Amino acid sequence: MSSGRYGLVSDKQTGAVVRIYLRNPVPLSSSMVARLQYLDVSSDFFGLSVNDFSWVSRLVSLKHLEMNQVDLSLVNSNWLEAVNMFPDLIELHLATCQFSCSISSLDVVNFTSLAVLDLHFNSFGSMFPNWLLNLSRLEYVDFTYCNLRRRIPLGLGTLPELLDGAETCTSGNAFANFSNLDLSNNQMPGTIPSSLGNAKRLRNIGLSMNKLQGTLPKTFGLLNELVVLDVSFNQLTGILSESHFAQLTKLKIVLLSGNSFTFNLESQKEMNFLDISNASISGSIPPWFWDVSSNLSLLNVSFNQLEGQLPNPLKVAPFADVDFSFNLLSGFVPFPVVEIELLDLSSNHFQGPIPPNISQSMPDLIFLSRSNNKLSGEIPASIGEMSLLQVIDLSMNDLTGKVPNSIGNCAYLKVLDLGNNHLSGTIPDSLGMLNQLLSLHLNDNMFTDELPISFKNMSRLETLDVGTTDYQEVFQPGLCTASWISEYSASD
Hints:
Its main location: membrane. This protein is mostly beta strands.
């Protein structure tokens, strides 16, 4: 039986309340708490705070306690002593509770039935809690963004079914039964233990945003159930050979950015996401790369030192996000073989004109950036047929001619940057139709005449750069009523 007033759930046989879901500060009567098994007082909207945790000790039958986003900053370590009194507690969720106390010590462990422990987004600033070793039924641990330090003790390997031990590192064979291991967003030093290769059930490895050094153990090549590998933004180096990946036939997501690897992913033809940005990669792109690219929905190789030309057509998956920005690539800009949503080729050495049929090749493009290259010629009128575009950045090139009126048809456009070119003529009235536009850069060109009066319709405009500090040179009197004019003049 249930009641909608406070989210009460009663036992069908005894009628006793066994679950309560509260989203308001409603006091609990003593008649409710004796047999209460499930209590959810998470505070998504109401800003609840608790400065005394002793009341929890009355919930003697509790199996599930959820207080996510309740302010427990004044409780300190008392909360741990209180919940430790429940031998039947199975799930404990205290995420984003503003804890700042240490959780590294607990003299006697009573809540040995605990299977799920979720404490993410707190700031304990302590070592990994040794008392976790006594929780033999533990299945899921989430300590992401908890500022825990050092390594998980070797004895953690005795836990039979740990699924997600987040934010800490380990040594030894401690992960034999893991399915998901997320140790991201911490300050973990040291190397990645080769014993992870013994965790044959691993499907997800997340070690990003730490201080890990060394290379990726070759034992990772034994993880034939692996789907996600994320070691981005560490200090890892070395060679990732075919022996790392040959047996990983289920691997879909590979995130290696922010390290310094030499690698070969020739066997990974089923990958969907590949991010090797900012990975100190230099030289030309190897031929095998284009054998694995055709299934990629995300391809990010930005911020490297890649040289040479891209193949034309460019082979990626339909509706992919493709980022080759900040490299040393040259030649003519390639077309993708399928429709894509994002194409960032900025800060390279591409040259030549923008093809006049660009709208036919990429009709569903959302993000187009070719800034800081050597593109020449005119902006094709067909760009106005790309109706889904939200960002057009063609700045810092050698483009000439007029801005096509058709750009005004890009109704969803939020950013238009044509600065630092050789564009001339009048600024088209049609730009005033872009009422979703937030940022407009027309600076350092050779436009004549003032800004069109239609610009007053750009009610959402936040940034306008026309390359002059004297706004009276470019603003017609009728534009003085535009909502952004005062901000423009004040910024000068």
